[in-house]
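note to self: dont lose this again. the chain is below, predicted strucutre after it. 115 aa total, dont forget to put it in the shared folder this time
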Amino acid sequence: MELGIRRVYEPAAEGEGRRVLVDGLWPRGVPKTALAGVPWLKAVAPSAALRRWFGHDPAKWDGFRRRYFAELDAKPAAVAELRAAIGRGRATLLFGARDAAHNNAVALREYLLRR
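---
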């Protein structure tokens, strides 16, 4: 499996494979028609409490990842749905956060590639 990440506000790139939105909130300013045909799997997003706690603070990154991975471990059906949506080929996880290095898609990609 080849798994990339891309900010949802960037245009789709050739060869990025199946695209899946993995945020819990719909990205601000993006019309639903812009992502027509892209599954939105908010069940694999971090809980609202975890998202608020993290607040995209890089100093909390390691703690966020640990807590998020525990949440994902507790939602095997949601993770299985994501794996089915991305398939075995190339896929891209879409996210809306400004910080491209510290966001749920980066952590989710790590989670999927490790397990």
